[in-house]
Amino acid sequence: MFDELAVRYDAWYDSAHGQVLFDLELACLRPLLPPGPGPRLEVGVGSGRFAAALGLEVGIDPTQAPLRLAAGRAVAVVQGAGERLPFGDRTFGAVVVVATLCFADDPAALLDEARRVLVPSGRFVAGIVPLDSAWGRRYEAQGRAGHPFYRGARFLTLTEHRRMLADAGFTVIGACSTLTRSPSENPVEEDAQDGVVPGAGFAALQARPQPPP
Ligand SMILES: C[S@@+](CC[C@H](N)C(=O)[O-])C[C@H]1O[C@@H](n2cnc3c(N)ncnc32)[C@H](O)[C@@H]1O
Known about the structure:
Blueprint (H helix, E strand, L loop, with lengths): L5 H7 L3 H14 L10 E4 L5 H6 L3 E4 L2 H8 L4 E4 L12 E7 L8 H11 E11 L5 H11 L13 H10 L2 E9 L14 E2 L7 E8 L4
The structure holds S-adenosylmethionine (SAM).
C-alpha cells in the first residue's frame, strides 16, 4: 500500500492541513529526543519527513518507494522490517517510531528489537495516535470504510501502548501531547503540552530500556 501511494502520502504533508499537523507533531516529538550521542534510528521512516526534521541519521522501512524519498532527504536508508532489525545490539542512542506501530504486523516484536539495538542509556520515542481519542476513532472508522492508508492500521489505546512498552522492557519516563481539538475542525497551531493529555489526538512517549535483571 505505501509503495503505490508513497508520493501521495508524502505530498499530503505539503497541504495546508498536513503542514499544521506535521508542525504540531514535530513540536511534540522534539523535546523528547535525547541530546546524547547518535546514531539515531527511525523505524518505519517512510519518506523521511520526521527523520530529516529531527536530524535522525538512519531510517528503516520495508517499503521501497518512500525510502527513495527519505534518501533524497539525506537519511541513510535501509530496507527492512522493524520486527527484524539488521543492526547489532546496542547500536543506537535513540530509536524513534512515528505513526508506525499501528501498521506493523507484530508491534511487540518491533519493540523488542528497538530495545535490543538501543544502548543502555538510549531512549525510545514513539509518536502515536491513540485509539481513545477522537482522532484515533476517526482514522479507525475511515480504515473500516476502506481508506487507502488506514485500512491497514490497527490503532491501540494509550493504555495498550503503555502495556506493550512495559512488556518489551521499557519504562515510560516522559510524554508530550498535542491535537487537543476535534478532528472535524481545521487544525490550528497549539502549544505541545507536557505529559499525557487524555483525548489528545497525538501523543509522544519517551521510554528508557529497563536494565536487565
Ligand atoms: C503512516 S507511515 C509513517 C511514516 C513516517 N514515520 C511518517 O510519519 O511520515 C507508516 C510506515 O510504517 C511502515 N511499516 C509498515 N510495517 C512496518 C514494519 N513491520 N516495520 C517497520 N515499518 C513498517 C510503512 O511502510 C510506512 O512507511
